[in-house]
Design a protein that fits this description.
With 139 residues, the protein is mainly α. The chain is built from six helices and two strands.
Length: 139
């Protein structure tokens, strides 16, 4: 019986892209607790208080993602600084509002740039006539 030599397997095998997704729930509560340093019971209380929403499997087991772990760290930092649960909720709500406003601002900036670009493409005489329409009468 001849033995064929098999190529040596290395740990540099390609990981499927989905496993690299930071939003992919892949950690049990025990692992999330170990990785975050937050006790399991506190993770349960954070979920009950609406500060954390881990995915649930069909068997109702909590699964935490890397994004969840980052969120847990943010909550723990605020709690350590003396902010209570309601204050943490408000801070996160304000952060969401700020993100939404920044996105809206970026979209408006893009629209403004497009309007300015289209105006520059017009003929100079047409652009001058349009400018006069928008100039306030200061007399």
């Amino acid at each position: 019986m001849t033995s064929k030599s098999q190529p040596k397997r290395t740990h540099t095998a390609r990981v499927p892209k989905s496993l690299q997704d930071s939003a992919l729930p892949k950690y049990s509560i025990a692992v999330a607790s170990d990785l975050s340093g937050v006790p399991q019971q506190q993770l349960r209380r954070l979920e009950e208080g609406g500060l954390l929403s881990p995915l649930r499997t069909s068997g109702n087991t909590r699964r935490y993602s890397d994004d969840d772990l980052t969120h847990i760290e943010d909550v723990a930092d605020l709690a350590e600084a003396g902010v209570n649960m309601e204050g943490i909720r408000r801070i996160f709500a304000l952060q969401e509002q700020i993100a939404a406003l920044r996105a809206e601002n970026a979209a408006l900036q893009q629209q403004l740039a497009e309007v300015r670009s289209s105006r520059r493409k017009r003929s100079p005489a047409q652009g001058q006539a349009n400018r006069r329409e928008f100039e306030p009468d200061c007399s």
